[in-house]
Amino acid sequence: MLAPSKPVPQGSGARAARAFLAADPILGPVVRQVGPYRLKPVKREPYEALVRAIAHQQVHGRAAEAMLNRMIALFPGQDFPGPTDVLKLEDGALRACGFSGAKVAAILDIAHKTAGGLVPTRRAAARLPDEELIERLVALRGVGRWTVEMLLIFTLGRPDILPVDDFGVREGYRHAAGLDAQPKPKELAAIGAAWAPHRSAAAWYLWRAADLAKENRFKAPTAI
What we know:
The protein has 224 residues and is mainly alpha-helical. It is 54% helix and 0% strand. The chain contains 13 helices and no strands.
C-alpha cells in the first residue's frame, strides 16, 4: 500500500527527483538513458479527469475522444460541462454520444458525487493526503485504485505515487532490473519504498524504460 503523504506544490522537485533516482542501482541507468524528468500534469478539475478516464476505459483513444467531443458539443460555449449540466441532460443523451450503458452509469455517478461534495474540487483536493483521496474516489462507480492513481499523478501532480498494478510500470522494472518476469505488485511496492518521496518520478522513468524496450532501444543492465 502506498504510504499517505502530504500534498506538495505541483511542478516542484523535478531536478531533485532525477538526482535522487539517479543514485538508485536499478533506476540510475534508466535515468541516465532517459534524461530529464518531464512529467507535466494537466491541470483539470478531478471531476473532469474522472469523466475523461471513464470515457477512455477499454476503448481506443480516438473513439473515447469522439464520444467526449459529442458530449461537450451539447453545451456550446463551455470547455467541459459541469456535473449539474450533465445531470440535467435528457435520458438517452449520453448514450447518443456513444457511451455504453456502463459508462453512462459511471459518468452520472461521478456527476452526482461531485455535486454532493464527495469528489473534491482541485483546490479542496490540494488539502487532502493521497490515501484519503484514493479511499474517497474508489467508491465511485467504475473507478478503481489505478484510475485514482493516474489522477493523482497526471492531474494533481502528486510526487509520491507508485501504481504497482500498472503493467507498464512493472514491465519497465523487469527490463531495468534484467528480470525474466515482472515483479508482483506487492513485491514492487516493497522495492519502491526506497524511491519515496519521488515514486511518481520512478513510475515515469519505468514507463519510459518499457517504451524504449518496446522499440528495442533499451540498454539492458550488464549487472544487477
